[in-house]
Design a protein that fits this description.
The chain is mainly β. Helices cover about 5% and strands about 50% of the residues.
Amino acid sequence: MRSDLRRTSATTLAAAVATALLLGTAGTPAQAADAPAPSPVSIGPAVTDDQQRGIFHVAAWTDVPGVTVTKVAVTIRKGDTVVAEIPSLPEYSWVKGRFGLTSADPLKLTEDGGTLPALGRYSLDVTATDSQGNTGTRTDAGTLDFTLKPQLEFGLSTPGWDDRTTVPSGTLTGVQPGSGDLVPITGRSVDIRRITPEAGPVQSAVTTETGAFTGQAYTVARPGDDFRVAFAEESEEVHGSVAYTHTLYSVRPHTVSVQATADRVRVLPGQQAVVTGRMTDPQNGGTPLAGQQVQVGPSWYSTLMSGFAKTVTTDADGRFTATIPALPGLRVDSWAAVPVDPYQSFGTAVGGRLVMPQEARIILGSRVLTNEGKVTATGTLRATYDAEAYFDEPLYLEVSPDGRTGWRRIALSTASNYYATTMTAASRGGYYRFRHPETDVFAGTTSAVFRLARTEARVIGLNAGPEPVAKGGTLTTTATLQHYTGGAWRAYGNGAVALQFLAKGSTTWRNVATGRSASTGKVTLKAKATVDGSWRIRYWGDATHFHAPVAAPDYVDVR
């Protein structure tokens, strides 16, 4: 720059500063150049729909009260090249202020009748206009992810008895944006791996022109093995990752013949059942199959309890033997034999009936022997190990003269091991117990023995007099009260007795006097006689004595 120009510039600048200071001194404010006011219209990010990559949505709004966004336009470009324009995006009816394309009108490739020339990612510039004519523009509001979304189909070949190899295969395709067509993704590597029973190395398979791929064979495959296939890519054509796990279920089993029996159908505590059988090959002339493993054990509703089963191996003649012991607390209704080799089938179920009655106990409750000669006792049947309730099990009440022999049943009922059972029977005392007979549910069991006793009593020598008696006169009735003790009938003193009268032609006895026996057992009771009738003395028992049998009454005329 020339020196004169530098001087001119400096002079001009100095003059301008002086003028500004002068104006400021004069109180006149300095005016800056007018700046454009910010637009009240705001625009959010534009987001591609991942399920249908031919559509996207964007939010646009204004904070001015009473003003709404009326139009949203979009420019789609690749770099600086505009490839498509959308003059007006529709507003979603279900979300106010959100605008976007719908699945009914997506963007498509030109080959599908659309406007986009190729797969890829495109920039989205968005311009929004409000109801007052204000506009706002957001450049690079988002990226349209117009790429293939990968998906996989995957399966395994079926292995068999003679060839236990499985080969994974499948197809890799991509969902095309806009049209939704499935197109093959070719020349890509797909990762394949067996993940159970133990993880193996990853192998790669390359897709063909149709998107198909075939992996290497896996030997010694077993039902339940899991295989996983995975693919991921981030390019202008394909974007995304996909993985799929497939479990080997189907195999081609070899059907063999197994004949087996158990030596008993009921296994009590301390016992065991012995199962014997033989395996042959019907597809090879019925020859015995040696060295084959069989699992034998208890079952419930024909389902083998594998945790309690034993694995045995057939001998040179195809024979095998297994024992099944009593298993306390288990509900068992059968036994079963199943092959260990998953490529082997018995054709039909092998098994039979087998029950294991569980150990049980009986808990005594209340017990009483009444003076009327009735025993009432309560007991609860309980499984020793199983808390689950069982119903309709037989339960007996039995009596014995000495508590050791001669037991006989005097009452029976059906019981559960959830509720107490009460039984009543006529009895004159003795040794008692509850007994549960052996059933398919419980082994036989008895309660503790308990004794209930009362003393027998009787009234003898009944006499009423005088006979005849004058009407209104005093009648005296005598008798002797005895009880059976020490092996003989002896006098029973201080026993409460009653004098009863039955008028001629009546059927109802009524008490007319009460008293107690003397120490000698002698009973003397008096009453006035007014009409003809019968007289008797009753003893009703007490806490330790039964009722005395009814003695023959004495009939007295009244004159």
